[in-house]
Amino acid sequence: MLTRRIIPCLDVRDGRVVKGVRFAGLRDAGDPVARATAYAEQGADELVILDVSATAEDRDACARTVSLVRKAIAVPITVGGGVRTIEHALRLLEAGADKVALNTAAVERPDLLRELADLVGTQCVVLALDAARQGGAFWEVVTRSGRSRTGLDALEWAAQAQTLGTGEILLTSWDRDGTREGYDLPLLRAMSARVGIPIIASGGADSPAHMIEALESGADAVLAASIFHDNDTTVADVKRELAAAGLEIRP
Q1: Dihedral sign, CA of 228, 225, 44, 242?
Q2: Per-domain boundaries in the chain
Q3: Which letter, b or e, does each residue of 46-69 get, where b requires 16 or more Cβ atoms within 10 Å of its Cβ?
Q4: What's the rounded Cα separation, in Å, for the pair 49 and 95?
Q5: Is the CA virtual torsion 190, 196, 202, 205 positive or negative?
Q6: What is the pTM for the complete model shown?
Q7: How would you label 73-89 residue by residue, b for 16+ Cβ within 10 Å and e otherwise?
Q8: Model confidence at 23: pLDDT above 80
Q9: Residues 194-205: pLDDT tens digits?
Q10: pLDDT band at 123 (very low <50, low <70, confident <90, very high)
């Protein structure tokens, strides 16, 4: 059996961790280095850092924050937010990121995924896909922190991204983000049936039970922010509950 990953997420703005609901109403949630260190000590398998205002402010994600976090922890780091060019992606990798996540720029120029994969390998390329349900079994790709509705079918876009060299999908339910109402399970089932690359479930986690549901619905990893930032639980506690449910978890 493949082990399942538990991934805390640090949404970062101006050098601070923030958290909101559906990418809005952001509140301060601490220092990124302190948060990253705590989660690594708790047993986090990976860490995701997303610069939540970089695209809106038309600037690069902060490589300095990545460098500081990398010096503090050894676990793999995925970085996204405002990644628009190959040069920017390479700067983040040089700063200590293991993988780079692309959303808006990839939608606007899909070949960016192939070009990056050709340079650094598919294992370093993550598609950050934010999906909003539009009724039935249709989810629309949204970009620019949910402000831009693209009209793209999320499942079709993910399949195209896979052919272009994407090695993993960070799948965020825009409808569930920050709500703590649980992951969008129909979306996860539909996506896992459509693509053959790992899927990280994001958006809506409130408990280990929600994570178990996501993993049983096709996710290969589960990402969460609020429940860790608010100290409702720890990565170690989540791992114990998932292991008790029979899921293969990294120690």
Answers
A1: positive
A2: 5-244
A3: bbbbbbbbbbbeeebbbbebbebb
A4: 13
A5: positive
A6: 0.92
A7: bebebbbbbbbbeeebb
A8: no
A9: 999 999 999 999
A10: very high
Where does 5-244 sit in CATH, by number? 3.20.20.70
* Positive/negative CA dihedral, 141, 106, 162, 49: negative
CA pair distance 41, 63, nearest whole angstrom: 23
The residue type of 241 is E
154 vs 191: CA distance, rounded Å: 8
Active site residues: 11, 130
- Quick one: tokens of 18? 């923030």
pLDDT tens column, 10-20: 988 877 888 66
Pairing verdict, β 139-143 and 199-202: unpaired
Tokens of 138: 């249709």
Residue 157 is which amino acid? W
Q: Is 196 exposed, middle or buried (0-12, 13-18, 19+ CB in 10 A)?
A: exposed
- What is the rounded CA–CA span in Å between residue 77 and residue 58? 23
Residue 113's φ and ψ, nearest 5 degrees, are: -65, -45
Q: Name the nearest CA neighbour of 103 among 68, 51, 138, 65.
A: 51
53 is written with which tokens? Answer: 């205002």
135-148 burial string, b = 16+ CB within 10 Å, else e?
eeeebbbbbebbee
